[in-house]
Design brief:
Blueprint lengths: L14 H11 L8 E3 L10 E4 L2 E4 L16 H22 L4 H14 L8 H18 L1 H8 L1
Parallel strand pairs: 1-3
Antiparallel strand pairs: 2-3
């Protein structure tokens, strides 16, 4: 099993994840995004996105009761990671679902950024998307909203 050829087909995003995906990206669950949890990836990488597939060594936390999800630090961290990686899925879709075109654009952005991951415009966009939900995930008022 390698990172790009896992033993499973991955999982669809959960209803709890879809709540944030819809709010941030304005898309409803389409089943096209597959998340491969417990993927074998290098230790210094949290996740890898390849087309509509997200590979991470994080474990799925959807078995928790909905009212407790925002109090669970793991759910917060994994949701932030998922939303960051979904920015890359959306970038891929913007290139007409072309892995060569989106990969080339990402590489060009990386080179133009002085070979800096954090200055790559595609990573900047992904971190900005991720940051948009940080306050909601960490805010106690947001947690109370989810308890309703």
């Amino acid at each position: 099993m390698s990172v790009l050829h896992p033993a499973t087909d991955g999982e669809e995003t959960t209803a709890d994840q879809d709540f944030f995906i819809n709010a941030l990206y304005g898309i409803s669950h389409d089943g096209a995004v597959r998340v491969h949890y417990s993927a074998r990836i290098p230790n210094d990488i949290a996740a890898v996105t390849y087309g509509n597939k997200i590979y991470t060594d994080a474990h799925r936390s959807s078995k928790l009761a909905r009212r407790s999800l925002l109090r669970d630090r793991f759910f917060q961290q994994s949701t932030k990671l998922l939303l960051h990686e979904l920015a890359h899925v959306m970038q891929f879709r913007a290139f007409n679902h072309s892995i060569p075109a989106s990969g080339w654009a990402y590489l060009k952005g990386y080179c133009n950024a002085g070979y800096s991951y954090f200055h790559n415009p595609y990573e900047i966009e992904a971190y900005e998307k991720q940051e948009q939900v940080n306050e909601l995930l960490e805010d106690r008022i947001g947690t109370q909203f989810m308890d309703l």
